[in-house]
Specification:
Elements (H helix, E strand, L loop, with lengths): L5 E7 L4 E9 L5 H11 L8 H8 L4 E12 L15 E11 L4 E9 L8 H15 L4 E7 L3 H9 L3 E6 L9 E7 L12
Parallel strand pairs: 5-6
Antiparallel strand pairs: 1-2, 2-3, 3-4, 4-5, 6-8, 7-8
The structure holds coenzyme A.
Coenzyme A binds next to strand 1, strand 5, helix 3 and helix 4.
């Protein structure tokens, strides 16, 4: 269980709105919602079938966190980010991870709905998952992502992940994957300041 709810509120000044979100543990009855989010986040051939997602969620050592978001509109309280014109609270993203062998955790997937991206939900899902993996005695974490998924590669680079190898034709649509890794125990490198 999460010790406390992780919350964030991040204004998107371009659109005069803010998204409040909270993270919590996945409940089995929301499986279909997660599967539908995954369908929206990944192209056919990379998105999971129901069976694949269910299998990953049930693996020994697997856990999942979901992000629930609600829009706070500063100019038009009737507008809805997730549900047109209605007060909007919805599951907007999730992450599935597992403790692996020899102290290496594994991020199985991280998905944030297109309308809810760019406000820090993915970063918060990733940070809370890394914290939990540390608590579960993982010293590092790995994940796979498609070599052409530039937003994801930029996102992981900003979170100090580095490419350790390429898996040719990893996905069923024949796209290669990069395997990325992060050391969970060493402190982040200080930013280099210009002389
Ligand atoms: C990758 C993914 C999970 C990121 O989720 P997200 O919620 O958009 O992540 P964040 O908001 O934390 O960060 C995304 C970008 O928004 C920017 N951002 C973060 N907070 C922001 C804010 N308050 N205002 C404006 N921009 C912000 C960040 O700088 C970041 O930029 P960068 O990583 O490209 O440098 C999401 O794009 C996604 O679900 N993609 C489809 C599925 C996928 O590819 N998953 C990863 C492969 S497994």
């Amino acid at each position: 269980m999460l010790g406390k709810q992780e919350r964030g509120r991040h204004p998107l000044h371009d659109y005069n709105k803010a998204v409040e979100f909270a993270l919590r543990d996945f409940r089995h009855e929301e499986f279909e919602t997660l599967w539908r989010i995954d369908q929206q986040c990944f192209a056919p051939g990379i998105s999971y079938s129901r069976l694949e997602l269910a299998t990953y969620l049930q693996r020994p050592g697997a856990f999942a966190l979901v992000a629930e978001g609600s829009e706070v509109s500063e100019t038009n309280p009737r507008s809805g980010l997730f549900n047109d014109g209605q007060p909007s609270t919805a599951t907007v993203g999730f992450i599935v991870a597992e403790t692996g062998s020899r102290g290496t955790g594994h991020i199985i997937t991280i998905d944030v709905l297109p309308n809810a991206r760019g406000v820090g939900i993915g970063s918060q899902l990733l940070r809370v998952t890394e914290d939990r993996l540390r608590t579960l005695r993982c010293h590092s974490v790995i994940l796979e992502t498609a070599v052409d998924n530039m937003p994801a590669l930029s996102f992981y680079k900003r979170h100090h992940y580095t490419v350790i190898k390429t898996l040719p034709r990893y996905y069923s649509n024949a796209v290669d994957a990069f395997v990325l890794k992060k050391d969970l125990l060493s402190p982040p490198q200080p930013a280099k300041l210009p002389q």
